[in-house]
Fold this sequence. Notes:
two-stranded antiparallel ribbon; 7-stranded mixed β-sheet; elongated; disordered N terminus; alpha/beta; 2-enoyl-CoA Hydratase, Chain A, domain 1; single chain
Amino acid sequence: MNRYENDNEETEEADGSQEVPADAQIADNGILALENAKHNIHCLTVIGQIEGHYILPAQNKTTKYEHIMPALVAIEQDRSIEGLLIILNTVGGDVEAGLAISELIAGMSKPTVSIVVGGGHSIGVPLAVSARRSFIVPSATMTIHPVRMNGMLLGIPQTLSYFEKMQERIIEFVCKNSRITPERFRELMMKKDELVMDVGSVLDGKAAVNEGLIDGLGGLSDAVECLYSLIESEPKSKEPEQEKKPRAKHRRQPIKTSVRIHGEEPDGRVYAKVHPFREYHPKGGRI
């Protein structure tokens, strides 16, 4: 049974479709839009592992990219939503899915603010920096490491070249949307003696800000206030008024007339009457 159905009866709308409760969006996608606040912002949560082209085991807490991407398109189109708040607590996941979501967020016209709570590891780093402004709480951490893949791999130069190109895509995106340099990001990515079974670095909140990866250290209120200020600084876009076309003036067509001679006066003057000229169809009837 669907968890949104009532055990006793199903609520039907007038058109016959089943009514979905207001908290359905929160349960499925972790999204919520409020209308009774200072500004109407949308909250998008990215939690657990980013699920890409392969379905992860049922016991894993995942964020499905096929849910997030349509939600971002809907947020961009919805005129009632003024800004987007992204809350991140992720261990990483599929590289292409994470980059796809990051590119969509970076390409939005509406103000966006991200906040990292808990962790923003691996592909969560591009997600964190994709917003216009990024925040991290002091207790959160971000793990930076090279691209890696599970399963059977072919030990050939083409495989290593593919990994290198994918890694460069991540570095380019992160450095483009933050203040960290590519050289420093590679150095943190290849750092030894910090991770037990891998190379890389773990940055806490303060270190992530000092490295230029995250814009500021702060909590939820700081992120919301920053989003409000971005919304208020946005120029108010006015709907283009439709140009009113000048009303066409209907000119009266001149009436065709005909002159019929009715007779002759005794003094030789001819009198006549002017009649409207009417055309007739050859088969009968007026045109």
